[in-house]
Amino acid sequence: MSEQRRGGEHRDDRRGNRPQGGRDGKGRERSGSRGEGGPRRGWSSSRPSERGRRSTPSRQVAFEGLRLIREDDAYANLVLPRLLRSHRVSGRDAAFTTELFYGSLRAQGRLDAILAACVDRPLEKVDPALVDVLRLGAYQLLDMTVAPHAATSETVALARSEVGAGAASFVNAVLRRVGERTLEEWIDEVAPERAKDPTGHLAVVHSHPRWVVRALTDALAGHGRSRDEIDELLAAQNAAPAVSLVMRPGLTDLDELIDHGASAGRLSVFAASWPSGDPGGMDAVKEGRVAVQDEGSQLAALALALGADDLVRADDAHWLDLCAGPGGKAALLGGLTVGHDADLLAVELQPHRTELVERAVATLQEAGCEISTRTADGTTLGAELPGRFSRVLADVPCSGLGALRRRPEARWRRTPADVGQLSTLQRTLLTSALDAAAPGGVVAYVTCSPHLAETRLVVADVLKGREDVEELDARDAVRAGVLPAHRTDIELGEGPAVQLWPHVHGTDAMYICLLRKQSAPAVEGTPTS
Fold it and tell me: Where does the record place Basic and acidic residues bias (predicted)?
């Protein structure tokens, strides 16, 4: 639902009909100007009283967020909360900002195709800051319920304050052209015909790069689903995700969260659903007893912590999180070590990410959980600590194509070459994880990407070179972390690995594969689970 329908930002944004802009009966542009400095009607926003004024804080926050993502490779889900706090934007204005910021990021490809049709030179030759402004304005005009005159005038004011007076005139002219058509009319013009170019059509309609459309289509088929689901998957990747909370084991319960407005989660036994907004003000979050975490991530950790109970054949005393940052899964695993009288080692390569892990597990450590953190290279840890751990989580770095709902910038930042480089690293990390596993221990190989080159192919390639590893059926292990009411009807595919999907499960597209280290080479013909 549009944030404007929930109250919006200004009365001016909520009322007022679409101005009579565009062209007159003779094809002339109708700006409404009555001379230099005279009153301007319709789409123009250059009234003397508005010259030099800044746009609204909400739009400035959205613009600054886009700039940080473009210039500093920042992450959207980290940038926005900080900017909202620093600019003191809250309530309905924060909701408006969130929709504008994330929406314009998700729609970037489609918006650029439309803007390219409205600009007299290649879009890449336009000042990048100006392109950011235009995207924000076009998104308000085409995708939100902001009144057109408010969308245009506020965007022009943003351009004037952030880029310059000349930019304001340019933005005004371009947005007048954008506003002459509806979103559906623009798509009909700029998107290739589906019959002739299905990938190109989907790329514009759902605003994903062509290579991502192809990769996700292949992933559906490769994981046993129909290619015809691609529209549903791409649409789900563009939908704002619900806020899911995770309850740290032993530190809180659902009743406490219900008292603060939460409700039961949809899938995970440790999940709660947050209605809307930032739950950071709740005491349980401030104290580290509750955190924000997608239910798919929870199920990946729970498959190893709960579902592997009947699968582990080793001394179950030492657990390992090989790529622990930022610490969400480590905290969930760490809280569950108590029931197994085990300890957890959480490893992260970068010191600043190790600090994030330490913050995530601090409250659990204070409660008596044996969790230690270490800054180390996960690719060599298996050689340093061979055969030590009964349970190993290898939640490896990946392209993030399964989390585009919450990190929409990844679709524009990643390239096919990145996937190739990452898959090499993923193979090395999985090999290290298997080396670190004790005989009879279980390794969970997890990615937040359904890309075949990061999931099934990585596992297949690693297993080709090892006779001491067997793949287990992960479906029952995943069900162990699912609420009892849904354990029998959750759709987990043909196995043995589990691929979750946004359009099927309402989670990020997590891939969960369980592997068991054998004490001796497997005998040919022996069942693998």
Answer: 1-39
